[in-house]
Design goal:
24% of the residues are buried. Helices cover 18% and strands 29% of the residues. By secondary structure, it is an alpha/beta fold. The protein has a single domain, classed as NADH:ubiquinone oxidoreductase Nqo5 subunit (Beta Polymerase, domain 2, 2-Layer Sandwich). The mean pLDDT is 89. A hairpin with a 4-residue loop joins strand 4 and strand 5.
């Protein structure tokens, strides 16, 4: 049994019914767990002697709105985490879908891996995913007065407001977006003998 298959078998054995789906693709193992089991599954992934995923490498939000123009089987918003086991030198990707599209909520894993702190804040800021149990869930990349979540696929391309520094008022001011929507058509210039050897 090769290493990745051994990891996959260990995950299935240890997590059992908490795994909604699992697959090996492109040399990586991806498991999906239900929102109700997410926090406990992540605790097991860190602590179980067969797994020992000591490090959370990345955590991000995903918006599956009109994903591939296919009907969705799960919720619109998901959180994906990448974990690393230093002891066994293997990785796993964990996905969990939020159950409510209007107020997507997933349990926070900050108390399991402190590195999740800023990752969860980023997913909240950009996608509007709320992490239940996070004690400092506030915007991290956009301004505190920013309206909406810019990585949502239904967020307008130009946004709602823009900010600029006003030298007369000597402060940053907000105003409605002034960018005129326009269509950019690339201009192609070719020589008469383009593609023919000289």
């Amino acid at each position: 049994m090769i290493k990745i298959e051994r990891l996959h078998a260990s995950l299935l054995e240890v997590l059992g019914s908490k795994i909604v789906s699992s697959k090996i693709a492109l040399g990586e193992v991806t498991i999906e767990v239900g929102a109700a089991d997410y926090k406990s599954a992540m605790q097991v992934l860190r602590d179980h002697e067969l797994l020992r995923f000591q490090q959370l490498i990345d955590l991000c939000g995903i918006d599956y709105y009109s994903y591939g123009n296919l009907p969705r089987e799960s919720g619109r918003f998901a959180v994906v985490s990448h974990l690393l086991s230093v002891d066994y030198n293997w990785r796993v990707r964990v996905r969990v879908h939020a159950t409510d599209d209007e107020l997507p909520t997933v349990a926070s894993v900050v108390d399991i891996w402190s590195s999740a702190n800023w990752f969860e804040r980023e997913a909240f800021d950009l996608f509007g995913i709320v992490f239940d149990g996070h004690d400092d869930l506030r915007r991290i990349l956009t301004d505190y007065g920013f309206i909406g979540h810019p990585f949502r696929k239904d967020f307008p391309l130009s946004g709602y407001v823009e900010m600029r520094y006003d030298p007369e008022q000597k402060r940053v001011v907000y105003q409605p977006v002034t960018i005129e929507p326009r269509e950019i058509v690339p201009r192609i210039i070719r020589e008469d003998a383009y593609g023919q050897g000289r």
